[in-house]
TrEMBL record:
GO terms for biological process: fatty acid biosynthetic process. GO terms for molecular function: 3-oxoacyl-[acyl-carrier-protein] synthase activity. It comes from the Bacteria. It comes from Streptomyces benahoarensis. Residues 2-402 form the Ketosynthase family 3 (KS3) domain. Pfam families: ketoacyl-synt, Ketoacyl-synt_C. The keyword Transferase applies. Belongs to the thiolase-like superfamily. Beta-ketoacyl-ACP synthases family. This is Ketosynthase chain-length factor.
Length: 402
């Protein structure tokens, strides 16, 4: 259970870049993908901004037979998987089918597909509802469609823990590789920018109602007022290090540590669980806090949640003890896709020696964070910590290193 697990391929579908390199270039340049919603008329709603994946036309990336069967979320996930496999130099048909698995995260499932079929049910009748509704809305559909398309019959599954799910999926994938599976496709992609998805997200009470794309999503800022929702995420290829080296694969980095906790009941007076998740990830990697070169924050942009995250980081690393960044200010919170996208950014940071900025934010002094803002910071990055929290109390932390 101690074999090293590494990342050999990245596939990104992000509001500020379609493709891994495009995303990273835009992120370093501070280019935001947040803007007015275009996928439906959001004018009657109190929230009208989102991070939408630009320039994605399903028929250019997904086989035509799959388009009527799949939600936009799954079309994005299939595309990101194709890119990740190509980036890793993996041809699935050349590997034993039971040596490959798929573990993804999902926060909402195929909301837009489900919405359209429910509209048909009530306006036209049950005979007009697509048979594909039976699975296209489901949380596990990305794992299923990726595995079917690529002939992957090894250990597979789906994790549902909101924003924390992307890291939890990567951890479960690592666990399966340590048990002997050769390769796992993992990560998360969500897409619920539609009226039904909008109402569900509004119910959480954490969305920003600002109409200014530069001031709507301001984690750790005095003007924090909630987050901007988004779509997209990242798919990564995880392999056992020895197998990756044997085939001469390019290795982005090692998934070295993981920790997860659940917050205590509100009003209990007990400490939130994020600090403990960080400590567990460090212990799992055999790493000291001084070894961590950057923290990619969860960045809820809800004042009390920002406060608790800043306190957890300061408790482990010391006040202003480590550079902290939240590039999701350029994409919005992508739910299960957000943390895998941060993992991709962390691996690029290791590769290029650059910490991406947190855009448009002025850090509150009382948070005691060394927040990277304005422009990328040059640094020797060998170890990066990625944090994620899910609605309801989920906390996850993953440590990646060169």
């Amino acid at each position: 259970m101690t074999r090293s697990v590494v990342v050999t391929g990245l596939g990104v579908v992000s509001p500020n870049g379609l493709g891994a390199k495009e995303f990273w270039t835009a992120t370093l340049a501070g280019q935001s993908g947040i803007g007015p919603v275009t996928r439906f008329d959001a004018s009657p709603y109190p929230v009208r901004l989102a991070g939408e994946v630009p320039g994605f036309t399903a028929r250019e990336h997904v086989p035509s037979r799959l388009i009527p069967q799949t939600d936009r979320m799954t079309q994005l996930a299939l595309t990101a998987t194709d890119w990740a496999l190509a980036d890793a130099g993996v041809e699935p048909e050349e590997l034993p089918e039971f040596d490959m698995g798929v573990v993804t995260a999902s926060s909402s499932g195929g909301f837009e597909f489900g919405q359209d079929e429910l509209r048909k049910l009530w306006s036209q009748g049950s005979q007009y509802v697509s048979a594909y509704q039976s699975f296209a809305w489901f949380y596990a559909v990305n794992s299923g469609q990726i595995s079917i398309r690529n002939g992957m019959k090894g250990p597979s599954g789906v994790v549902v823990s909101d924003q924390a799910g992307g890291l939890d999926a990567l951890a479960h994938a690592r666990r399966q590789i340590r048990k002997g599976t050769r390769l796992i496709v993992s990560g998360g992609v969500d897409a619920s920018i539609c009226p039904w998805g909008w109402v569900a997200q509004l119910a959480g009470g954490r969305l920003s109602t600002s109409d200014d794309p530069e001031r709507a999503f301001l984690p750790f800022d005095a003007g924090a007022r909630g987050h901007v929702p988004g779509e997209g995420g990242a798919i990564v290829i995880l392999e056992a290090a020895e197998a990756a080296r044997q085939r001469g694969a390019r290795i982005y980095g090692e998934m070295a540590g993981y920790g997860a906790t659940f917050d205590p009941a509100p009003g209990s007076g007990r400490e939130p669980g994020l600090r403990r998740a960080i400590e567990l990830a460090l212990a799992d990697a055999g790493a000291d806090p001084a070894e961590v070169d950057v923290v990619f924050a969860d960045a809820a942009a809800v004042p009390e949640l920002d406060r608790s995250e800043a306190a957890a980081i300061a408790a482990v690393f010391g006040p202003r003890g480590v550079p902290v960044t939240a590039p999701k200010t350029m994409t919005g919170r992508l739910y299960s896709g957000a943390a895998p996208l941060d993992v991709a950014a962390a691996l690029f940071s290791i590769e290029d020696g650059l910490i991406p900025p947190t855009t448009h934010v002025t850090a509150r002094p009382d948070h005691r964070l060394d927040l990277v803002t304005g422009a990328p910071r040059t640094a020797r990055v060998r170890t990066a910590l990625v944090l994620a929290r899910g609605y309801g109390g989920f906390n996850s932390a993953v440590l990646v290193r060169a």
